[in-house]
Amino acid sequence: MSATTLTIQRVSPDAIARVIDDAPLEPFGLTDAHRRALAARLGAITTDHHRRLDSWLVERGGRVAARFAWSPLAARRLLGSGGFRRALRGRAASIRDGVRDEIEDLLARAASGRAHRGSLGDWLAHRHPAELALVQASAVEWARILAETGATVTGDWTVASADAYYDVERARTTLRARRDLLVLDGEVVVRVRAGGPTPSAGPGLRADLAAAAFAHPDGRAPRRYVGIWPDAGVILAVDGTLANVRAGTRDLVRATIALHRQGELRAA
Amino acid sequence: MTPTTTPARSILEDLRGDRSERPPRDIETAAGLRATLDAELLAIRSVPARTSPLVISASDVTHHGDAVDITHATSGRLRGALIGQLIRLVAVGHEIIDPFDDALRAWRLDSPSPTLIAAYADLDANGRARLATDVAAHAASLRRALADVPSAWAVRTAVRARVPLAGGVVVLHDVVDLVVGSYCDASSSTVLLDVTTSPIGRSATSLLGFHAFVHCLRTSVVPLRVAIFSTATGELISRDVDETWLELAANDVLDVARRA
Questions:
Q1: CA A145, CA A80: separation in Å to the nearest integer?
Q2: Chain-chain contact of B220 with A233 (C-beta, under 8 angstroms)
């Protein structure tokens, strides 16, 4: 079996373009046998609820994070990406206006009773104008990072409208591939991350790569999955090879086992 | 170094300067600086080996020995944190009605440090009233200086950096209050602005150098200009960034690493 690879670069105006241009031309493709094997492995790890597996879980070694609560940091990806999409499509004069419009739409939904309890719209509806402005500032910050990243890409790119999901048959499990920018119609996927890369950043990217391959209707892996840590000025990338997809799948399964053991410990 | 008092128009407008006079962006300097610094840091930090990285932040390069800086006082830090929040609100066009209330609400939502939360909780009614008055005065100075920030400008606030050096043996931490421009532009266009609620001290040169240096390493592009504005005095000090100055900033980092 060939070894997994991890490309490391410093952020610079031409580094992202280089990382994308150097992506292998023929990525690995999954078959039905791969899907059946994954379903068998995850189906064997019992669960009493539907579980969602992603790179975040892999990076935390299967440990469940504290209960989710909305915050400016938690909201910035959704609002920032949405606001940036509006600006790109000419539906807002600027990123700042696009983010403001995203917030106002969610507030309007909440005001008309269409926001679920615990949703972002519901949370925003209970915020003071100054708090909303902070949420907007945080989302604008995110959107500007996406804009700077996009500005350095040479091929066609779009802001991902959603992450990629794959429901694993008979395993009560959904895989999630986080993605922020899709280059060349998703042949290369870019993720933007806060802080600096940890030692588990590589496994995290491989988990995203594997989830994206399973989520693709034809099982086609992205040619390259790129993670950008603008705070640290670091770019990491994994290629869509058999070795990387296998490693990503294996780490997702391991994280599921760790998750299962935690559940058993809590129940004991 | 160019010291001025608060100008009639927005300081950001002044700092951005004339677009036609901007030099081409410099993407050569960062790699050389990094290579030199990495080699020197590895030599310094190899003995004794550390299990955790040495974290160097702006306060390490600006505070030597037992020098006292009023920003270190808890009330000063609280005031600075609240004004920091107002910068973020002003940058997205928020109309500030009650500076203290707005700043406090934003600060509380923004996961403040437990130390500052405790410090605020310890303030009695008089202490809070004094802080509110103080914040209102500094906010007025800030609003005059920043004026209305156009929505089309590429403005980012509270821009964080966590740059690993020498294979992660040393990590540079920094937060710049406001950044205008993009490192992707063909000409050098990035301006970094630090806002302090204290009078500008003697260490301003080192502070600005550190901001410019970390930004340069983070983006691989030399920023155009870096500045500090005092909401206490209305003083603005700005400096164009060049290679020589970045080398001095790199030496400051090395000095901290040697002392650690």
A1: 9
A2: yes
Cα of B162 to nearest chain A Cα, Å: 5
Confidence grade of residue B68 (pLDDT, cut at 50, 70, 90):
very low
| B107-164 confidence digits (pLDDT tens) | 999 988 899 999 999 999 999 999 999 999 999 999 999 998 999 899 999 999 999 9
Stretch (H or E) spanning B230: strand B225-230
DSSP A125: H
A43 neighbors A52 (Cβ within 8 angstroms): no
Fold of B2-66+151-259: Lambda Exonuclease; Chain A (3.90.320)
Smallest Cα distance from A245 to chain B, Å: 27
pLDDT in the model for residue A205? 97
Is A71 within 8 Å of B111 when comparing Cβ atoms? yes
Measured CA to CA in angstroms, residue B195 lies from A10, B16, B84, B97, B175 at distances of 29, 16, 8, 21, 11
How many angstroms separate the CA atoms of B85 and B95, rounded? 13
Q: What is the pLDDT of residue A68?
A: 86
Q: How much is the pLDDT for B50?
A: 59
Q: Which helix (H) or strand (E) holds B53?
A: none
CA–CA dist B211, B239 (Å, integer) = 12
Residues of B in contact with A135 (CB under 8 A): 109
Tokens of A266: 């809590």
